[in-house]
Design a protein that fits this description.
Layout lengths: L10 H8 L3 H13 L3 E4 L5 E4 L8 H9 L24 H15 L4 H4 L7
Antiparallel strand pairs: 1-2
Helix pairs in contact: 1-2, 3-4
């Protein structure tokens, strides 16, 4: 996708290249399209392509957007926390900090930084 930004790739092409489930990839493509990272069209001549240059897509932003609402650990969830350690827990703040450091580090990298060099696919 990054080497041919104007070309729309089908789910089948991408699933075959990366050896992943088409069903799972369809869900990921849907989420990426909803977040505005890719443009996706169904039907003949359809497919998915980047909505903006790979050099403008920060990995931390993508991960944060796709993981929004998903708790790293139970006590991070807005509802359903039954951890008995919560009132005295000293780990939660460290984990929250670690998640932020992880995302900040990913934000130093763009999709273009991770793309295959031209002609290697």
């Amino acid at each position: 996708m990054t080497n041919e930004p104007d070309r729309a790739f089908t789910t089948a092409e991408l699933a075959d290249e990366f050896r992943i489930s088409r069903n799972h990839l369809a869900k990921v493509i849907s989420a990426l399209a909803a977040a505005g990272y890719i443009e996706a069209r169904r039907g003949g001549g359809g497919g998915a392509k980047l909505a903006r240059p790979a050099s403008e897509i920060r990995l931390g932003e993508v991960v944060a957007r796709l993981e929004a609402g998903k708790a790293l650990v139970e006590c991070f969830a807005p509802a359903g926390n039954s951890c008995t350690l919560t009132p005295q827990c000293r780990l939660k703040a460290r984990l929250a900090h670690a998640v932020q450091v992880f995302l900040d580090d990913l934000d130093r990298t763009t999709l273009a930084d991770c793309a295959y060099p031209a002609g290697t696919t």
